[in-house]
């Protein structure tokens, strides 16, 4: 009984580690794209202002 509980607990912890990793990965890409869009918009604005 104890061994089965340990296996379930370990798999659950592994699952949450995977979920947290996925969340970090998505947050990283969302932040990266947002930062890229903001900087490119600023660059476009500066580029348009030259003319």
Entry keywords:
mainly alpha; 1 helix
Quick gist of this model?
The protein is an all-alpha fold and 51 residues long. The protein has one helix at residues 2-50.
What would you note in describing this structure?
The protein is mostly helical and 51 residues long. It has a domain of 28 residues. Helix content is 96%, strand content 0%. It contains one helix and no strands. The chain is rod-shaped, with a radius of gyration of 22 Å. The N and C termini lie far apart (75 Å).
The number of distinct β-strands equals 0
> For the CA atoms, what is the radius of gyration?
22 Å
Percent of residues in β-strands: under 5%
Class inferred from helices and paired strands: mainly alpha
How many H/I helices? 1
Shape: rod-shaped
Instruction: State the helical fraction.
Output: over 70%
User: Main beta sheet: strand number and arrangement?
Assistant: none
Distance between the termini: 75 Å
Order of helices and strands: H
Mean pLDDT: 78
Parts with pLDDT < 50 across at least 5 consecutive residues? none
């Amino acid at each position: 009984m104890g061994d089965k509980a340990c296996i379930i607990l370990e798999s659950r912890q592994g699952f949450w580690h995977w979920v947290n990793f996925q969340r970090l990965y998505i947050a990283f890409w969302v932040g990266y794209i947002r930062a890229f869009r903001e900087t490119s918009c600023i660059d476009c604005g500066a580029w348009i202002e030259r003319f």
